[in-house]
Specification:
alpha/beta, six-stranded mixed sheet
Length: 132
Amino acid sequence: GGGAVISPALQRSLNVQEGETVIISMDFIAEEAAELRFEVPAKLNQVWAQTAGALKLDRYLNATFDGTLLFAGDLRTISVNGQWWDVRVLECKSTQPRPGGKSSEGEGPDPPRLVTTSTKVVANFAGDSSES
């Protein structure tokens, strides 16, 4: 059979070496994220108030990650007014209930969730109990 060459970046992302077999399937359908909670640096709270005016940080995060697959625990870097900030995904709830209504504890890692414009995004500031 034939094959295809994949880029070094994709090889790293898939954690495969040259010569290994990778199967690409067209039937993957991501679950939409109903709610997404980020932990952002507390200093970003101050910077955001000074630079963004009335724009809410949660809306900015939603627009930034719209169309992205995220896992709980992911660490992502965003740019705000030319400054880089690390944000952590604390929770990424699905719109679909788990089979039997059970929690995912002990059932392995949750699959990634797709962020959409309808995903509720909440920013929690590290070292601060308030939300944006």
